[in-house]
Amino acid sequence: MIEISQSNLKLAAELLSGIKNGMPKATARAINHTTAKTKTQMKRTVGKDYYIKQGDVDKTLKVKKASWTNPFATITSKSRVLGLDKFKVTVKGGVVRAAVSKIEGYKERKGAFISNVRDFKGGSWEKKGGKNKFIPNYSDTKSIRILKRKSSSRLPLKTLHGASVPGMIGNENIIIALNNFVVKETNKRLSYEVGRLLGGFK
After folding, report:
1. Are residues 74 and 173 in the same domain?
2. pLDDT at res. 9
3. Potential cystine with 99: which of 3, 19, 88, 202 (Cβ 3.0-4.6 Å)?
């Protein structure tokens, strides 16, 4: 949650007292500007601690902006646990090693192997020979997956996973870093927005 120091709020309110809706405007603008910068900072911070592409983080993020009447903004992340192929994987001598966290480093994934597979995209039921038959649909292109057999049999297989984006963002070190960034940026931006309104910029 974004917090603005009480002293800054008091000063801003005094300076904008003669401008209609001045305080709500300045506050909402400052919060929204900080939220946009925080989204970028969030991707960078996660990328510093985890072997994850910023684009994969960005896909999970959704921003809700603040308004004059509701001075609150949120950034939410929603995703499933990502497959190991989204992180750092090496194979040497038939042994698969994967790293999710840059702090924890590589770990051996016993029994794992890499394969190019087509993603399952659902399917449909069709009637053939008087019987209903499920027709699976797969992607046109193949992509790398880290797999492991569930038993000694060739099939079935399971996909190995690393971590979810919300889980990475929720790391204590990342939360602390983001909170510090938000507080600093919001207070700085509030001063800027107050100056814009006092200078006559709408």
Report:
1. yes
2. 66
3. 88
Structure tokens given for 156: 């079935």
Amino acid sitting at position 50: Y
Element (H, E) at 55: helix 54-58
Beta strands in 100-193, from DSSP E residues, in sequence order: 106-108, 112-128, 131-149, 157-159
CB 28 within 8 A of CB 68: yes
Instruction: Provide the greatest CA pair distance for the chain.
Output: 81
Residue where the block lists tokens 């006559």 = 200
55: nearest Cα among 94, 90, 91, 86 = 86
pLDDT digits 0-9 by tens, 60-98? 999 999 998 988 899 999 999 999 999 999 999 999 999
Only one residue has tokens 């190995």, namely: 160
The partner residues of 77 in beta bridges, in order of sequence, read 61
Looking at the structure, tell me whether residues 97 and 123 fall in a common domain.
Answer: yes
68 and 90 co-located in one domain? no
Please give the residue range of the domain that contains residue 44: 6-78+165-198
Cα–Cα distance measured from residue 76 to residue 170, given in angstroms and rounded to the nearest whole number: 11
Same-domain pairing of 10 and 70:
yes
- pTM, rounded to two decimals: 0.81
